Amino acid sequence: MHNYPLDPTPDTLSLFTVYMCHHIKPDSVGTYLSGICHQLEPYFPDVHTSRNSALVHRTLQGCKRIRAVPTSRKRALTIGDLETVVDALSSSTDYDDNLFLAQLLTGFFMKVMKRNSVQTNNVSCKFFLPGHKADRFFEGNTIIVRKNPHKFDPHKQFSTYLRAHDAEFPFSSPLWLTSRGTIPTHSFFIRRLHRFFDSDTAGQSLRAGGATSLAENRVPPSIIQAIGRWASDAFKIYIRKSPVLIQALLFGQTKWSQSTFLHALET
């Protein structure tokens, strides 16, 4: 196309990197280069040496600095946000309102998969979380959420929803079901969330908000990472990119009791 030699030297790969960074995100160019090297290796055995050269590496790093697009992150929900929703919906008798509120609070404090994995008593909810992406050995975790005296008590709302679920759908395995007996979609939750908050909130806001709340209660970062089932690299990036979480880790308050929050027991 540009009359360059076919041999993939560091110079040609560097020029290709610059060219591609004008058309796609620089973060994707490294993947393109790896795929190209895999295809060319039978014909050019030294292609990986050229790919790993200092010139190509520095070219790609420079393009990322110049043309990288900032990651758009949703706002973390706060305890005050939870109180706003609880005040509006806690007295509602509508099934779907109870479903949404239970999802909101349990999503902030924990994550639940199947109805038959849930055990409840007067002081806590307990369930088994199967293997997930941060669980390299897919052993799963036993999660306990304890009752707390505040209005945003996830145990109370979860129990309320569970009674409604079992009354309407006693033989259904999925834990989350709408009043129509269907599994709630992403849009079901987001539509209701945006009745209370702007579009700068989404599903990830719950996880981020839970991590920030734990940090405000002086919970060590290593424990927050384990509780939230964050991969190591993802958690470090989130801390670095989130000024709210950094402030919470540095100047955590003790307004809320640590017993309010989720306890994770490694199995």
UniProtKB/TrEMBL annotation:
UniProt keyword terms in alphabetical order: DNA recombination
Any single biological process term in GO: DNA integration
InterPro entries to which the protein is assigned, alphabetical: DNA_brk_join_enz (IPR011010), Integrase-like_cat_sf (IPR013762), Phage_Integrase-like_Recomb (IPR052925)
Calcium recorded as keyword: no
GO molecular function terms listed in the Swiss-Prot or TrEMBL record: DNA binding
Gene3D superfamilies: Intergrase catalytic core
UniProt protein name: Uncharacterized protein
Natural source organism: Laccaria amethystina LaAM-08-1
